[in-house]
Amino acid sequence: MKSNESDYSYYYSVLQQTFDQMNDKPTGGVQVDEHDDKGEVKTKGLKEILTSLLLIEEQAKTDNNEWEQAQEEEKNLFEENHRKKTKTMLDYQTEFHESDHVLEETHRVRKRKSRASTNAAITSVIAADLEATSAQKGSGTGLGQGAAGPNPGPQRRLWVKNRSQDWWDKCNSPDFPDEEFKKWFRMGKDTFEMICNELTSVVAKENTMLRDAVPVRQRVAVCIWRLATGEPLRLVSRRFGLGISTCHKLVLEVCSAIKNVLMPKYLQWPDDESVQMIKDEFVSVSGIPNVVGSMYTTHIPIIAPKISVAAYFNKRHTERNQKTSYSITVQGVVDPRGVFTDVCIGWPGSMPDDQVLEKSALYQRANNGLLKDVWIVGSSGYPLMDWVLVPYTQPHLTWTQHAFNEKIGEVQRVAKDSFARLKGRWSCLQKRTEVKLQDLPVVLGACCVLHNICEMRNEEIDPELMIELMDDEMVPEIGLRSSNAMKARDTIAHNLLHHNHAGTSFLS
């Protein structure tokens, strides 16, 4: 509209100039009379045109004002609609939050009511059982003399499945023969009682409203029976009158308690006084001085793990038994009585003995100088080092070397026989177990601690339980790792032969 207005103004100015020129007198050419009719007509026509242009200009101004007014109204209408939409959205959001809060509060109320009704139902059931028991006692009619005894208390059949515990009640009786108890649990009653007393503070549980806790003696018995026999959990469950999951849980809990409570007391590196006694006893056995332990590594069969299967594959056992075998290792150092003073448990079965040794805490202890000037005797599967004494392995041995190997074999046999008693006493170590791989070190550690307790208390093992160990020895790639150890071994071998401590079988 503004563009039209400017055009009209331009035309108006042009016409106005033309009109003024026509009214002026000409400077040359033909003279025109002022009263000429044609001049009057032209003047009149130009005035009419000018008037029309003025009207058009006024109309353009009017249209422009109307357009601006329409634009303003449209702008006001848009802003009003925007305000209404914004207000509507805010109101909807507020209502949504309020509704969500109401629903959440309703859900909490329903949960409280549900818990209250459940507790009320449980209370009513127990109260009914108590009333029924009281009524039967008052009328003189007992509940029977079954496994529950003459005073079984409130019945909880909704919560506990009735299982027979006759076998365990028989074993737990004071009249049960000690020899029979030892045959089943690999230890006498006194040793079993001592273990229960040591673990009571850790494994004891309190009774609840729904069920009575399993007694400490029964908890320990479940664990020791499982370790001693290696029976599947379903058979252990039937024997002790407990659920399968309960038996599995008890075994792990008691093994963990044995590791945490009894291991620091019954499986530890000897102090200085004990070290001197161990040296003297090994000298009396072999004539080799400064020996503080005999070392051996055995394999425990396991089910094929889900991860790192190749690492646990036992090639040597697989070839011998013609059956795929997987295992983990147990490295142990024993004193002259066969009591473990150090154990390293859990490395994969494909790892040779020398690598297991390098991964052990014993190796770190030696690197820190704690095994200086002493020997730990190992088999040919270990390397000769400043603190590890092993037999000669090269071909064509001399008389002196033969004599040394004979005597060092006597020391090595102490550890091997101890591991044979360990596996014979705890049969779970002879077969693939149901225990998960991550829980197995705790179970094996518990077996080693129980072995030490039996050895210290002179619990003899039935000769029928003894087994022959089938652990192959692999000569390490670098068998000689210390020149000083080579010289020391040669000196020991020379002294053994020439001081009548060894070699008599070769000289006869």
Note down, in words, how this protein is organized.
This protein is of the alpha/beta class. Among the domains are: 166-265, no CATH class; 268-507, no CATH class. The protein is 59% helix and 7% strand. The protein has 17 helices and five strands. The chain has a five-stranded mixed β-sheet, with helices on both faces. A hairpin with a 5-residue loop joins strand 2 and strand 3. Helix 6 crosses helix 8 and helix 7 (233-240) packs across helix 8.
What general form does the structure show?
elongated
Cα-atom radius of gyration: 51 Å
Structural class by SSE content: alpha/beta
Q: Report the sheet-strand fraction.
A: 5-15%
Main-sheet strand order equals 3-2-1-4-5
Order of helices and strands: HHHHHHHHHEHHEEHHEEHHHH
Count of alpha and pi helical runs: 17
Classify the helix fraction into a percent range. Answer: 55-70%
Low-confidence stretches: 25-35, 139-154, 503-508
Number of strands: 5
State the major sheet.
5 strands, mixed
Query: CA-to-CA gap between the ends?
Result: 139 Å
Q: Return the average pLDDT rounded to an integer.
A: 83
